[in-house]
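All the exercises in this workshop are built on plain-text protein records. A learned vocabulary of local backbone shapes supplies the integers on the structure line. Once this layout is familiar, the rest of the handout is easier to follow. An example says more than a description, so a record of this kind follows:
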Amino acid sequence: MFLVLAILALGTLYILRYYQPRTPMLPAVKAYDFKGLYTPTISRPKLVAAIIDWCIMHIGDQHTQPTVQISYHPHRQNYGCYLIDKKLIRIYIKNHKSTESLVLTIIHEFVHFTELQTTRHSNNYILYDKKYGYHTNPYERSANDMAARHYQQCLQDLSALGYLKAQLPLF
């Protein structure tokens, strides 16, 4: 019995340390579909911090905050990821072609931060990923739904604060 528990514990530690979920392409709102209707008026690191602050105020718990890391090295396929063991949101800033894409990704990863807090949650994520696949994993669907539901309000609020400038769409 002890041996089984020890193996399970070591397996969980390995998974938490080395398993990094893939970044989604939102089924309802695809990040690459945007024409860039909002232009930042502040630096990218300040914009990322402002989006995280917005998420804390509107989605998460104001008492807990994720660690955020901006990577300036493009990733082959990811826009961002959430590292469960470090409670770290990593944003691949150069992969984003629009402000809308950045907002969607940060909200999506922030939802992972709020939902994947314990070892049990991370184990469930991995089981769901194997059972249902990435795009139908309930944690991914939840993060996609929240991002699709909230990104427009976030853009409007950041624009009202002067962090973004709305561009007129060209037809």
Q: What stands out?
A: Residues 6 and 16 are 15 Å apart (CA to CA).
